[in-house]
């Protein structure tokens, strides 16, 4: 199994997106232990945590059967890119290829393409396509509902 998860500061809405092949509970414990002991590998996340130790939530965004490590990082990167820069606690984007693919998804959504076609062409899950869609408030909400 794989998991894509989000750790969100409830007050500021800042988000850290991650992926894991281990249990989500185990992964949260690993983050918590590093943050609590002030040696998390991500300095942005550590600083946000140090500023406010409370008001955090851990959410599973997507899960599925086992996939390649490269594919897992691509999916994770797609979620990271959906978080506006000023709310992102991840320190870097994964790949330019991921940005290019996300741009293609945006283009297809703007052209009114159905989710099944976008999924087939890009390899992204409908959950991920929907997440990208939520970053496009200029598109009418009802127009695409029937096409999922």
Structure at a glance:
By secondary structure, the chain is an alpha+beta fold. The chain contains seven helices and three strands, in the order ββααβααααα. Residues 143-148 have low confidence and may be disordered.
Strand order, sheet with most strands:
2-1-3
Main sheet overview: 3 strands, antiparallel
Please give the CATH class of the domain at 1-67: Alpha Beta
Rg result: 16 Å
Describe what you observe in this structure.
This protein has 148 residues and is of the alpha+beta class. It has a domain at 1-67: 3-Layer(aba) Sandwich (GIY-YIG endonuclease), CATH 3.40.1440.10. 47% of the residues lie in helices and 16% in strands. It is globular. The model is unreliable at 143-148 (pLDDT under 50).
Give me some keywords for this one:
148 residues, alpha+beta, three-stranded antiparallel β-sheet, 7 helices
Give the arrangement of secondary structure elements:
Layout: E1 2-9, E2 15-20, H1 24-36, H2 43-51, E3 56-64, H3 69-81, H4 96-110, H5 115-122, H6 126-133, H7 142-145
Antiparallel strand pairs: 1-2, 1-3
């Amino acid at each position: 199994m794989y998991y894509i998860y989000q750790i969100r500061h409830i007050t500021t809405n800042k988000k850290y997106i991650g992926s894991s092949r281990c249990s989500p509970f185990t992964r949260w414990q690993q983050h918590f232990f590093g943050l609590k002991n002030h040696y998390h590998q991500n300095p942005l996340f550590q600083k946000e945590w140090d500023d406010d130790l409370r008001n955090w939530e851990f959410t599973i965004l997507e899960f599925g059967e086992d996939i390649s490590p490269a594919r897992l990082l691509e999916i994770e990167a797609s979620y990271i890119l959906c978080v506006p820069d000023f709310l992102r606690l991840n320190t870097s984007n994964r790949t330019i290829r991921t940005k290019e693919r996300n741009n293609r998804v945006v283009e297809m959504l703007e052209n009114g393409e159905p989710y099944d076609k976008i999924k087939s062409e890009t390899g992204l899950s409908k959950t991920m396509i929907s997440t990208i869609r939520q970053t496009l408030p200029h598109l009418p909400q009802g127009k695409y509902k029937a096409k999922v």
